[in-house]
Amino acid sequence: MFHLVTGGSGSGKSLYAEERIAEFKDGPRIYIATMNASDPESMSRIDRHRKMRRNKNFRTVECFTGLSGLQLPAGCNVLLEDMGNLMANEMFMQDGAGIHAFEAVRDGVDHLMGIAGNLVIVTNEIFSDGIRYQDSAVLYQEYMGLINQYMAGKAGRVTELVYGIPVTVKDMMKRV
Prior knowledge:
Elements lengths: L1 E6 L5 H10 L6 E5 L6 H14 L4 E5 L14 E5 L1 H10 L8 H15 L2 E5 L13 H19 L2 E6 L2 E7 L5
Parallel strand pairs: 1-5, 1-6, 2-3, 2-4, 4-5
Antiparallel strand pairs: 6-7
């Protein structure tokens, strides 16, 4: 099962996603951390997320780029947090895919779907601010739009968190 969780900053996506992956009792629970700590703010966010998942039996794996090469046990329960960081890393880190970031991330998502028994990916809704960006930020938005559309098409369930309230956007699991 692939569940995509989206929403704005501070919407409660992370906690919701952790609760969803914790529902699966069989198999190891793996948290793929994508934030590369580069400043005090990112360190604070990482610390907050570590505290949130304390005592939830996650094995944390850091993966900043190259998701398609990540080795995980077959049938594991995977939470990837989050797509926005992974895409930025692939675009802007020295060992990232650069202009081929979308393809690298897409291939990584496909790789996880092939390995994980259950997969939850947290992504960001970044298009509501009404600001017109330039250059690399526009390309980042384009790639995020493409990967979010790709993942939503592949996911059996898509949930948007709005002010902490989960809103089901797609649920192929409830088909009769």
